[in-house]
Amino acid sequence: MDNSGTLDSLAQELRVFRPLPQLVIEANVNPQELEAFRRQAAHDPLGYWEEAADELDWYKKWDRVLDDSDAPFCRWFPGARCNIVYNCLDRHIETANKNKLALIWEGEPGDSRKYTYYELYREVNRFAGALRTLGVKKGECVIIYMPPLPEAVIAMLACARIGAPHSLVFAGFSARALRQRIKDVEAKLVVTADGFYRNGQIIKLKPVVDEALVGGSADCVDSVVVVHRAKVDTDMQEGRDYWYDDVVRRERPESPAEVMDANDTLFLLHTSGATGAPKVVSHCHGGYMVGVHRTLTHVFDIKPTDIFWCTADLGWITGHSAVVYGPLLAGTTTLIYEGHPNYPQADRMWHIVSKYGVTIFYTAPTLIRMLMRFGPQYPRMHDLSTLRLLGTVGEPIGPETWLWFYRHIGRGECPLLDTWWQTETGMFMISPLPISLLKPGSVTKPLPGVEVDVVDREGASVPPGKGGLLVITRPWPAMMTGVFDPSAKAGGAGRERFAESFARFPGKYLAGDVAKRDEDGFLWIEGRADDVLNIAGHRLGTAELENAFRAHPAVAEAAIIGVPDKIKGEAAKAFIILNQGVAPSDELILELQNHMRKELGPVAVIKGVEFRDSLPRTRSGKILRRVLKAQETGESPGDLSMLEDAD
Ligand code: WT7
């Protein structure tokens, strides 16, 4: 990269970074090829995605590429049959990849395990057999509530192999949140661990599952499989709970992959929407596999010798597409780490990069901001010369963090790929390739086959330099296949919640972000436009947080806004009206923060609580969060008004 400019000055969003000539020569997709892909995709998008699909193995090919006769509900590759796990594992063991590392795991205490493609294949088959033995059938859902352990990856792949949709719940969620999620998807089985290491301590996990299932409160669950990680005392309920090692020991290392319809569900994932309770998003075997494979191999320029480390927890979409499915489809080596990024000190991430020779490091701005605080002496303690590409996702990175990451981790030589996408999109949507020109803080341009626009409230494209709503204007293969509102299961709410995103501008998917395009057509993401907070790259709905607050006996009314946070990007601030007769106090604030932890788990970080006698409202009684936000940040309240009701 051209790093001749002064990296110290930060007022340089305008500076363009170019890839080193050697990198352009070696790239899988060079600038001419990228242009050709773009032209092909613009002219014949279905042909473009069909070629991408042809790179994978299918039991039966599609009748057509896209059925959009029931738009916005799309079916990609209708008539096709496949199994994503066949493409992640079976396909590779027929090739020279058989004995290549598929998975490297580093435990927080420094222990480590490695699986070749063949070993992972055998282990996944064993667990797939165990799931079948325990009575899990095609179409029945399995909850995976686990820390980053190899068995979590194995469980995901084993579920997919037998056609049982998996649903991961981040281990930072509380028993109550877990119970709700189990019930939402009517899970038959839960996979968990006795506990895990985090920041030098053992966190027990199995008791949280016991609490979630207490007294048959989620009686859809027949069995719980427990991985013996922390070796702590664990209560096991006879007839319900099984040790992982016991159930796999008796299984054979061969277990055929279920032949799935391309549109059969691969997984379900909860995420926060603009309204109400979290929604459940589903992805399928076929289109998801095609979209993720094509975009990940393009963006990260996967080479046979790569060691790919995406630091996301498995419980988010990033963990699905960029830790498990994408890297394994691409036949590369994926790395997972169990513990805290600062344990035992602030160089742990860099120690892991040098220990395994990581070549691609993909993370979130919040992690970089946290590590930046400790200074560049920590990365300097290690040899980071194996790194060739950096990536970021989850929230706007901003030029300052971009430049620190680029210089201190990437030596000013590694392209920094800022990828924009979502749980709903499944695959990367807007991102540079290693050969692209980069502007610090810009996600650059949509990938070939992806079409986006920035529009005003009437849906008309806005000119360069003006902010607007980001929309996706054409279907893409990894798009969600369903969005369910679990709280309203009766009455076809799944279709409504899906259609919600296409309702405002017919035919266009409303992403929920504010964005702007510059004179060169580069896109800049400015943040969420709706009532969704992005705390350290994790989505939390204001409605969800407010409901949890209201469940406390002292609280009459609650309004949540996002406020800027140096490390987390955004944090939640609560405005609370107390019930008559309840006196505000510091103890009450602490109690409310603990209450939120219990309701939702440590993911719900409440930065401030302020007591009010009243809250600003519309005439129809809706709380005007943007007014609170304007009071808090001093911004004009009109800024984010685009999604508010006219009244
Ligand atoms: C929201 C989606 C996809 C993995 C992580 C989050 C924000 C995502 C970027 C980026 C600026 C970004 C958006 C988006 N976001 N990537 N590169 N730059 N903002 O997935 O939980 O579904 O959240 O994350 O606001 O809408 P998610």
From TrEMBL:
Keyword terms: Acetylation, ATP-binding, Ligase, Nucleotide-binding
One matching Pfam family: AMP-binding_C
Domain (AMP-binding enzyme C-terminal) ranges: 544-622
A single GO BP: acetyl-CoA biosynthetic process from acetate
Enzyme type, top EC level: ligase
E.C. numbers: 6.2.1.1
Residues in AMP-dependent synthetase/ligase domain copies: 96-481
Tagged with keyword Phosphoprotein: no
Domain annotation Acetyl-coenzyme A synthetase N-terminal: ranges: 35-88
GO molecular function: acetate-CoA ligase activity; AMP binding; ATP binding
Gene3D superfamilies, per database record: 3.30.300.30, N-terminal domain of ligase-like
SUPFAM superfamilies according to UniProt: Acetyl-CoA synthetase-like
Family: Belongs to the ATP-dependent AMP-binding enzyme family.
Designated name of the protein: Acetate--CoA ligase
Organism taxonomic ancestry: Bacteria, Pseudomonadati, Thermodesulfobacteriota, Desulfovibrionia, Desulfovibrionales
